[in-house]
Amino acid sequence: VSRVLAAEKLFAEGTRETLEHAEAIAKQIRVLGHIPQLKIELDLRGGPTNLQEALAEMLEVERQALDAYKEVLPRVTDDQMLEDFIRKQISVETEHVQEIASLLE
To answer: Residue 7: which residues within 8 A CB-CB, separation 6 or more?
Structure first.
């Protein structure tokens, strides 16, 4: 039961944080003088699932986000503010991956 409650809390926080991250990234894009464009490339199967499968899917989404931030980092090293922002996001996503992975153990 405690694992289920922890997972429910994680799903709720994940939804909220996803929106916060999207808003923060859009703000950074606007600061750079560009217009944010949405392009999501996730491969999720959807449909009914159990807790283990839902956590595994959530872990994959977080890993994809972490990989995306790591891919962007070398391209922003000439902008200290943007580099700091991306490094913070890498730290946040790393924490999420570790937290979800621990629930899957």
So the answer is: 51, 54, 55, 103
Residue 56 DSSP one-character state: H
pTM, two decimal places: 0.74
The model's pLDDT over 28-77, given as tens digits with 9 standing for 90+, comes to: 888 888 887 767 666 656 666 788 888 898 899 899 989 999 999 998 89
Side chain identity at residue 59, one-letter code:
L
Q: Are 72 and 88 spatial neighbours (Cβ–Cβ below 8 Å)?
A: no
Instruction: State the chain's maximal CA–CA distance in angstroms.
Output: 48
Tokens 């807790």, residue? Answer: 51
